[in-house]
Amino acid sequence: MARNNRAPPPVAVLRGHLSPVNTVCFVPSRPITPNDDVASLSSVAPRSLLSGSADGMLKVWDLTTRREASSAVQAHSKAGILHTTTQGPIIVSQGRDGLVKWWDVVDGGGMRESRTLAIGSYTFTKAHVVDSNLLLVPTEHAETVALFDVRTSGTHPAMIFEGSPIKSGMCMSLTSMPVSDQTVACVGFEGGVVALYDFRLAAPPLLSHAVSTSTVLCMDAVCTSSTLLCGTSGDDLVALRVHPDTTAATADSFYRSKQPGISAIANRSVDDRIFATAGWDHRYLPTYLLALDTKCQVGPTLR
After folding, report:
1. Same topology for domains 16-118 and 124-303, yes or no?
2. CB burial class (10 A; 0-12, 13-18, 19+) of residue 153?
3. pLDDT of 224-247, one tens digit each?
4. Domain 124-303 has what CATH class?
5. How many CA atoms lie within 13 A of 212 on its CB side?
6. Which CATH superfamily is domain 16-118 in?
7. Is the dihedral of CA 29, 33, 34, 39 positive or negative?
8. What residues contact 30, with CB distance under 8 A and at least 6 apart?
9. Phi, psi at residue 295, to the nearest 5°?
10. Domain ranges across the chain
11. Span 55-96, pLDDT tens digits
12. What are residue 154's DSSP bridge partners?
């Protein structure tokens, strides 16, 4: 009997955006304590989802009532919102207007902008939250990445990572990953190279490794094995395993999609057993990650 691989119907449909939704992000289920007198995001929407649309609107959805909890109508310009995430108690949005903004949810369903950072990047490269204090962002120079510390009030980055010596085109994707006793910045480039930088030093990359002949569009870390899962503009998924001393790495193409273009990838970090990809073919593919210690093995769940 043939296995039914069809996706189940949605649990809920959230309506309210007037333009295409570019980005969504679940709010972590852990308690979120705000700064000053700002109401806790968890108290406004205990199970929450962030969304940003092409007209610059930012929304917080309560997944218990399945209704809008808060919104900022003009969070960014009509260029639209590229990315939404959280950093500690704060909502972070990145717009195609070259700005990154931090938001507090306030009583009455409103949102208050607490900080704005002009990064000068108008590409599709998404900022990455390293921890509750550090944010890795693309810059106006397509080959350069900047690290900002939100504990400082200035507009100057704490660190600059140069990608021009690699000669692999513009920066396309950002993430971070713990390796041995340190956390490294991971940058994917247009030419198919992934570079690792030391957060403690504004120095050349610890290593750079060609993972594909196609552009590295997205990455996510499998922290238990110091491995990066990389999605490309081609049809291959690549696992980049970084050696403990960060001086070398090995790359294996472990899965080929039916259609080229993997634009997003997310690993379930709780157990590193399932990851999901989103492709240019408008398909979302959750996949079992059966082994990463020797060689990647995968098995699709739903298409």
Report:
1. yes
2. exposed
3. 889 999 999 999 899 999 999 888
4. mainly beta
5. 29
6. YVTN repeat-like/Quinoprotein amine dehydrogenase (2.130.10.10)
7. positive
8. none
9. -150, 140
10. 16-118, 124-303
11. 999 999 998 899 999 999 899 999 999 999 999 889 999 999
12. none
